Amino acid sequence: MPELTWTAVLLGAVLGIIFGASSLYLVLRVGMTVSASIPVAVLSITLFRAFSRAFGTRPATILENNIVQTAGSAGESIAFGVGVTMPALMILGYDMTAVRVMLVAGLGGLLGILMMIPLRRAFVVRQHGTLAYPEGTACAKVLIVGEQGGSSARTVFAGFGMAFAYQFAMEALKLWQPSPGRTFEKFKGAVVACDVSPVLLGVGYIIGHRVAAVMVSGAMLAYLVLTPAIMLFGQGSTEPIFPATMPISRMGPQDIRNAYILYIGAGAVAAGGIISLLQALPLILASIRSGLGDLRQSDGRAAGSGRIDRDLPLWMVGLGSTGLVVLIAASGLFPGEVGPAGRVAGAAMIALFGFLFVTVSSRLTGEIGSSSNPISGMTVATLLATCLIFVLLGWVGPEYRMAAASIAGIVCVAASNGGTTSQDLKTGYLVGATPRSQQVAILVGALSSAVVIGLVLLLLNKASTVVTEKPEHLPTVSAPSDLARSEEGPDGKTYKVWWVVDPRPGAQPGKYLVDDSGKAKYLIDPAINGRIDVRDDGTKVTKYDAPKARLMALIIDGIMQGKLPWGLVILGVLIAVLMQLSFVPALAFAVGVYLPFAVSVPIFVGGMIRLAVDRIKRTPPEESDASPAVLLASGYIAGGSIAGILIALLALTPGLASMIDLSGRLPASWSEGAWPSLGAFGVMVAALFLCGVGVLFRGDGLPAGMEGEIEVREENL
Asked: I need a surface site. Which of 85, 280, 354, 534 has the fewest CB within 10 A?
């Protein structure tokens, strides 16, 4: 039966790039992604079927469709690792170069796949029936139903088109406000807002009402309790209170967030990640014990053994993993100032932590699925250990801060891709695929996605970077005289570069271009974690909070430089501990504290729609996860994210962006009012609800009763 065909690998790589780019957009906005395996499988089945009918070619086999979803799933896992770690470099005061981002994405992705291959027998085969692999099993259902002619991608395509058109009308044509909100005069500091985004609505539906409600609760604490309290108690202040650089009495809600809430949220996210890791500790220990115990028995099988038992040879896996580690040590990931000892130590930490957390991630994916896998907690643990080792060795210079971020990035990508590979191989095991073919496909998918996702990250940052010369954004103090680096400014002149990493009186953190006298002429405010969303000409741009990237930067600075406002961070840690003691998921609550209130509200709305649909339909969870509304929500995420990326790139050509901007031709009551935004958002909400209850796209999901048909092996094909 045809399996590893060039058409399947090519389609998988293309879909992986598309969903990887949308996942990157999502992780920069809200710090999370959702599994792309099921939407990719559904699209593969439909696209191949349409191609066969149009050109009279043979229909694709179930094994080819499995290759497509295997190659396509790599994009989402790489996007998560890159989006969580690489923007931390800019927060630390370094440039995020294309070579570094692509090396971290490519080397980490390949390393995670190769390290997981010897564990396949331990987790996928020997523990079949013990490890549930919920998302891998659901994907196998999709492939089986598609083989029987019962699946359609019409819902995914519809969601993609609706969200793309909606996002374009909102952000490019500017027909309505993207984030209407309201302040309260008698409750100073409180702001209620909603980001009317189909992407976030889809995320909320997929993650469900429980997590969505916990997230919005964290946002309410931060923006309806902590922010008003800070403004109330600080209304009589005349001096700045660290880490702020202006008195609280002169601050607005956004200033309070930047100066205080972000540090509280980062402490809560760090504690939540560590708590989730500790909760999984029994599974982690079992994973390591099982993986190491069965590793010696995983010989890749000789060429004469059964097709469904063939892996890539162990000698190839070992040689490839060793070669990647050597390449990491010799590459430009470590600055030139890092000596041979530092490079060897860094490569050794990547090999050790990489194999440890690939093993853990592969096992946890079998227990709780890839979407619930605590990869960020593993990354925090890696970063803490790396920074502590560097401090003990006396390596605390700027070059080692960059090295620590790169090490954490590679381990994060490797752990994320290792878990995805484990899930894909389980799907293949259930439908009778050849493991070696899947392994080749996901290696190709990872490499292609790594290159493109790195470029997308850099383009998104460049497109919404604001260069301003307004005095209110520039330091009132002179720059140091020992600045070494120079850069050309927007006026064509050469200026020295001054990175301000820590807030100080007279100088907010950021990248400034200063003249020979030390006076700042321009602020280069990035799209990721930037604070200015309006250019000097009045053009509004999209900014990305990248919550987990800021967390990584805070950990590096806190351990290696000792410059954190520890009081605020500890407040966040205690909030997370309090939530966990109250049996509330600490990490989800912490993410809500960190993110803007407007971001959490549409996620909450999506979760409530999911709750209403499941109550009305009385749908069991295993069927709800593959319902038509989940497919529509996946289309919302992909369509809105891709549109958001393309619209952000319009900022590179300001003339074109101004030409299609229709806001100036509309009445002010329409373009500035909240009701047009809420009305448009209501249409997307209604479509999702009607799809969930079976009024729209009826019959496009998976039929019930498929649980008994999952045990499909080679003889059944």
From this structure: 534
* Report for 286-295, 418-427, 540-549: range of highest mean pLDDT: 418-427
Q: What is the tens place of the pLDDT at every residue in 170-187? A: 988 889 988 888 888 788
- Say whether 416 sits in a helix, a strand or coil: helix
pLDDT band, very low/low/confident/very high, at 111 (cuts 50, 70, 90): very high
Q: Over the Cα atoms of the chain, what is R_g?
A: 25
Measured over the CA atoms of residue 240, residue 241, residue 243 and residue 248, the dihedral's sign is: negative
DSSP 509-543: SEEEEE-TTS-EEEEEE-SBS-S--B-TTS-B---
Q: What are phi and psi of 190, to 5 degrees?
A: -80, 135
Q: Would you state the pLDDT for residue 620?
A: 62
Q: State both tokens at 189.
A: 């500091």
Considering all CA atoms of the chain, what is the largest pairwise distance in Å, rounded to the nearest integer? 81
Buried b / exposed e across 239-265, counting CB within 10 Å, b at 16+? ebeebbbbebeebebebbbbbbbbbbb
Find out whether 502 and 509 touch, Cβ atoms under 8 Å: yes
Torsion angle defined by CA atoms of residues 248, 253, 257 and 259, in that order, rounded to the nearest 10 degrees: -20
Residues 6+ apart with CB under 8 A from 471: none
Nearest alpha carbon to residue 151 among 711, 715, 702? 702
Full 3-state SS string of 116-141: HHHHHHHHHHCCECCECCHHHHHHHH
Q: What percent of the chain has pLDDT over 90?
A: 23
Say if residue 509 is exposed, middle or buried (CB neighbours under 10 Å; 0-12, 13-18, 19+). Answer: middle
pLDDT in tens, 212-232: 899 899 999 999 999 999 999
Cα 697 to Cα 198: distance, rounded to the nearest angstrom: 18
* 528 neighbors 465 (Cβ within 8 angstroms): no
Q: What angle do CA 154, 160, 165 make, to 5 degrees?
A: 125
Mean pLDDT check: name the lowest of 67-81, 263-277, 587-601: 263-277
Amino acid at 554: L
Is the pLDDT confidence value at 531 over 90?
no
- Residues 159-164 have a mean pLDDT of 89
Question: Given phi > 0 = left and psi -120 to 50 = alpha, else beta, which region is 369?
Answer: left
What does the chain come to in residues? 717
pLDDT-derived band of residue 169, with 50, 70 and 90 as boundaries? very high
Indicate the residue type of 523: L
